[in-house]
Amino acid sequence: MLSISGRRQQQGSGQGRFSQLLQDEDEYLLYDVGVVAYLHSNQVTRSFKGRLRIGTKNMFFEPDTWSEPIIKIQWVSLKDLTMSLCDACASLRSVLDLQSPSEAVLSTQSRPISELSFSSSSCAQMRIKGFDHPYIRNTTNTKYCFIMPFPNSSFDSILVSSLFDLAKLTGEGSIQAIKRLVGDQRSKVAFDLTWLEKPTLEVTKLDALVNAEYPLSKIPGRIRITNCFLYFIPIQGSRELNALIKRICLKYIIYVRPMENGICDTALEIRFGSSQADKYHSDSSSVSPIKIEDGDKAGLLVSNTGLGDTSAFMVSFDDSLTRDAALLALESSCPLSTHSYLNQSVQDAQREWLHGRLSNYDYLLKLNFASDRSFNCLSQYPVFPWVIQDFTSQVLDLENSQTFRDLTKPIGSLNEERLAVARQRYRDLAEVSNTGVAGSKNTIIQPRFQYGTHYSSAAYVLYYMVRSAPDAMLRLQSGSFDKADRSFYSVSECWKSVCSASSDLKELIPEFYASHEQDLPLDSCARVRGAMNSMDYQPGEFLVNTLNLDLGTRQDGQLVNDVVLPPWSDNQPRKFIELSRAALESDYVSEHLHHWIDLIFGYKSRSVKFDTMYYTDALEMLLGDSKARSQGIWTDDFVQRAVNEFGKTPKRLFGEPHPSKKCKIVDAEEHTK
């Protein structure tokens, strides 16, 4: 495969290796402090400076030395936890103080000093030299000693002791106890007025507790909205890090939308454009202070959507009332009307599309935004259709209807045998739901669905994007890449699986049709993890293994490396994307796309009649059934976790059949005349 010009961001470079994606599912980072660490194992003692990060399920130690791995230690594996050093480290500290009291890292001149020690025989080693690789499991018994030598570090020993005790709990009791602890810690986050950018001019409009939402992770904290800036203070800030404030100038906010985050209608996504927007990526790989400058270089792009120079920040509130108050506070201070594409109504966008003034790509992206899809949420990532079914010809014939997929059917209906199984599954589940468990007097109401999987989920997004987002895949797969035979190896094989496999229903993502960097915002999965300068993004670069990841060898002996592309693309990623985009904008697709819109965003979605009833659809319906909820099985937490794992159907936008497109896209220059 031809190499892509403009290499992706080089791993092993940068200012920090830690990422929120190194945490476990439903884990929160609560504390972050600089330390000196002593590791005792196999009668050898090694010392490092670095950072100790305390999460609700693990401790993480990141040495300043990049050749050393980040060490992840589960709370459940800890033994002999004390707020003091072991005898060997205590003696060593005394010797250092006596030898060089003015220069010693552990000098009494830097007191008060906090201490922590424990032992563990299990840890995971990750990101050695900054590279993403499968986690290395180490079972060597090790004694860990940490010293917080900085005078302004307020180490929270009570928090550490509480987490150590909570690790002994299991099941729902543990989950609820951790939630309470996180809530208590979040409520302690305070806003220091010295952090205001313009203290004499700023007036506070809203101050609230929130969770900043990132792909596969979230950061609890506090948001403050003034008449000039939006501030976010994360829960894990320590004094020496100046609370890791994120700051966005309201002047550059171009779009604010309320949206559902899973089943909770409490989220807000804030999209902004700036000359420095590319520094504000939503991959949560950094918690460094981020400042959006007041420069005069911000502005909309000449592209149709104007998304290429924008990024987004997504937060979820404790309730919809507080979210709506935040929305009002932002709308009263931001010139949102300056961005016509993002702020136009669905009806206006439909009218533009019908009259050929909006491309198929732009219209689909608009519908995704309107239906609560977000680049910041992998379980609600924008969904695009497969439109090509010919992946074997030497030339892609866009005038031949046989080139294209049947857009009148959902993926699950493309194979009649699979569809018959899905319909029978629904009938069988309906019988179980009506009769209950045999011999039982209590009927258990079950979700009734046709498909146990979905066409869009976090797993599917990362299946496509593993070469661009290996850290996210490692997080999803608990520290390893998927088996080689299940990895994204070939576009043709992927399509065959979609058309035949019983549980493979995946549609595509925008990256397959983004023929220019301006087609994707900076927070999209491809661009946020793209080239060192994200403006150098090359179409299709997510199909190339530029990071030289070891993705394994298939049973047929083939190495999983770059994605094998169809013959008509000449195995060139850019050509593949450009031809795919041409197919999306073709006359055939333009004339039939409204059918697919009905299935995904319209009246045919969540329907047994139209074969679009998915597992998570059925679960969400049970939440509205008082009898089902009274059983105590189908709780909000259960359904939320299911949606996060299996995916969520977009919000319905149309209650009637969507009209078909009447004409081709007009030339951009002609439209401006």
Condensed summary:
The chain is of the alpha+beta class and 673 residues long. 27% of the residues lie in helices and 18% in strands.
Task: Kindly list the characteristics that best describe this protein.
673 residues, 27% helix, disordered N terminus
Descriptive account of the structure:
This protein has 673 residues and is of the alpha+beta class. The protein has helices at residues 87-99, 157-166, 171-187, 320-331, 340-343, 346-354, 360-370, 416-435, 458-465, 470-476, 491-500, 525-528, 573-584, 587-600, 615-622, 626-630, 636-646, 668-672; strands at residues 29-41, 44-55, 58-63, 70-74, 79-82, 114-120, 123-126, 136-138, 142-148, 204-214, 217-226, 229-234, 246-249, 253-261, 264-273, 290-291, 310-317. The strands form two sheets. A nine-stranded antiparallel β-sheet has the order 5-6-9-1-2-3-4-7-8, with helices on one face. Strands 14-15-17-10-11-12-13-16 form an eight-stranded mixed β-sheet, sandwiched between helices. Strand 1 and strand 2 form a beta hairpin. Helix 6 packs antiparallel against helix 7 (360-370). The model is unreliable at 1-14, 96-111, 238-243, 275-303, 530-534 and 665-673 (pLDDT under 50).
Shape estimate: globular
Largest sheet: 9 strands, antiparallel
Structural class designation: alpha+beta
The low-confidence runs, each spanning 5 or more residues with pLDDT under 50, are 1-14, 96-111, 238-243, 275-303, 530-534, 665-673
The share of residues in helices is 25-40%
Strand line-up in the sheet with most strands:
5-6-9-1-2-3-4-7-8
Q: Can you give the mean pLDDT?
A: 83
Question: What count of helical segments does DSSP give?
Answer: 18
Rg computed from alpha carbons, rounded to a whole number of angstroms: 26 Å
Number of strands: 17
